Amino acid sequence: MTGNTEWPLWEVFVRARRGLTHTHAGSLHAPDAELALRNARDLYTRRGEGISLWVVPSAAITASSPDEKDPFFEPAGDKPYRHPTFYEIPEGVQHL
Amino acid sequence: MATATVDHATAFDAAVAADERIEPRDWMPDAYRATLVRQIAQHAHSEIIGMQPEANWITRAPSLRRKAILIAKVQDEAGHGLYLYSAAETLGTSRDELLDKLHTGRQKYSSIFNYPTLTWADVGAIGWLVDGAAITNQVPLCRCSYGPYARAMVRICKEESFHQRQGYESLLALSRGTPAQHAMAQDAVDRWWWPSLMMFGPPDDASAHSAQSMAWKIKRHSNDDLRQRFVDICVPQAESLGLTLPDPDLVWNESRGHHDFGPIDWTEFQQVLKGNGPCNEQRITQRRTAHDEGAWVREAAAAHAAKHRSSTSNGSDSSGSGSGSTSQGEESA
């Protein structure tokens, strides 16, 4: 069997229970979305790990590049005033 | 360009030194990548080939309870293989390439699976000893420096614990059963003990890849350290089973705080590795046959998917959809 028959890759996201977001669990190969869901159920929820699944073609994901991670995320680096701990509050002041 | 590589190498070394994880699209040394592909592929192949010796007993399991457990365990092994193939694919190899290398003998699987499962008790012994040795090996891999491999190992270790416990329980039932059942359990332990110790690989001074893998934090402990840990764990477990381990030299060494044990027959290990074990031929033949006989299913599913795609896209530019995925794998994005 050569490469031209290989099924596309899918990323699998599992919602563990109500109230939680879907979280990336891993990936798998499947010929189409319907079978990707079935394979995801068999591969990632054999022990009741989820109540809802998403499958997304890996090729459809756009990602930031690790090479530019410093400049790309830099704008947040020099803004400590976005955190509550930046501010000095007199001792004894409550509910703040 | 040269400076960029030096920067990358420094960043890689710093991340490893700081116990951070290396992720798929990070720069990494070629040898690091090659080592991981070799190790993860071998690990994945072991899970898949490892289904065979146990599946051998599914139809003859002594009760419905044992049968359901064994089916679930063999299904888990398939799942573990798939987690690991996905992790290997993040390093730029493809699933087809990995399977092809297994089928043509260019990548190996653990030599333990080249031993036969002669009796029902072997299923218990595999769970207790083979999975026990695997867990001892795998728990430190949960902290491996390569992210996708470490994450796959976390999932696998969680599931592996049931494998070992069911094996132990099954052996215990036999050991406490009739004299014939007890003898069968003892015979299985006698045959699986030494091959299980070999699963940790050659002694440290003869292990080709150990030192570099430890420097890269792919490996966290040496082969001999892990083997010693396993022996120390097994001795009291064997006592509770009412079974003995087949090693006359096995004795507690007060000064070392460990059990001493007899010499391992590394010529046997090398022979099995070279393909001369009892079941090498059978295992790989069965794997190739299963793959070949499943070809029509894979092709039919792909054809169905292609047909469905072209009928739902109204014929407008369906050529690029789906089949051209980048195949970079888990979290490549």
From TrEMBL, chain A:
Residues 63-84 are annotated as: Disordered. Residues 66-81 have a biased composition (Basic and acidic residues). Gene3D superfamilies: Phenylacetic acid degradation B. InterPro entries: PaaB (IPR009359), PaaB_sf (IPR038693). This is 1,2-phenylacetyl-CoA epoxidase subunit B.
TrEMBL record, chain B:
Residues 300-333 are annotated as: Disordered. Residues 311-333 have a biased composition (Low complexity). It holds the Pfam family PaaA_PaaC. InterPro entries: Aromatic_CoA_ox/epox, Ferritin-like, Ferritin-like_SF, PaaA, PaaA_PaaC. One of its GO terms (cellular component) is cytosol. GO terms for molecular function: phenylacetyl-CoA 1,2-epoxidase activity. GO terms for biological process: phenylacetate catabolic process. This is 1,2-phenylacetyl-CoA epoxidase subunit A. It comes from Streptomyces triticagri.
